[in-house]
User: What shape does this take?
Amino acid sequence: MKLLTKEEEAAHYRSVVQGGTVGTAIGLVGGLAGVMAASRRFHTIRNLTLPMKAFLVTSSGTFVGIIAADHASRQYEAERNVNMRYLENREERLRREELAQMSFSNRLTAWAREEKYKIIGVTWIASIIGSFVLVGRNPYLTGQQKIVQARVYAQGLTLAVMCASAAFEIHDQRKGQGLLDTAKKGREAAKESSMPEHQRRDENADLWRDMVAAEEAKLRQRHKPLFEHELKEQQEALENKKEEQSEEKEETVDDNEDKNKETEKGESE
Assistant: This one.
């Protein structure tokens, strides 16, 4: 991570604003279309007040805009730093190879852990729509009662998903991969980049060390049976050598004993 210059900050700001604007526009259009379609289909949505409908539309625009702005920021960082992009591509390739060896349940768990915040947002929207549909079928509730009941259902489901995401985050923190650990690494990288040139580590050397270590780990993982076979052969050869040495020692001891006996016999005669 490097400190941005004023020109890079301006370019990053333009990229984030552009991505957020496009995402907000798409979210508003999608939210408006969803509210209009739901108003034609469901009586509860049709009876909502105008501020409530506007809130649903603007919430969709805000949600999509935030995600689009975040993606635009990450894309700018990837395009600016070629070395970091290479590392991310390498990590992504290793990640795909790792996922290919995992079972379906493990892949699903890994995907849920990586996309937990998107799942929370989508679950919140889906729970609101689903709860409105479920409560709207009850003819004994008024419109306001249906809204309150649907909101309770949506909040309960969203809270359950947030608890699951918190469990994933705690598990990631124990492995040193949580959000706090990532932010700490970012602060350390920023502090390092602000150090004088003679105190700064050689980033290219670190990059090449990481690349070599990753490729070695990849080769070891790919040829793991071969390495285990070679290690087994080396251990067997070492054991055979030890046995031969012990046999030679025993033969030497026997020869010495025979010589001693012959010497004693000659002296007695």
User: Anything to note?
Assistant: Residues 224-269 form one domain. The chain has a mean pLDDT of 74. The longest helix spans residues 224-268. The CA atoms of residues 127 and 154 lie 5 Å apart.
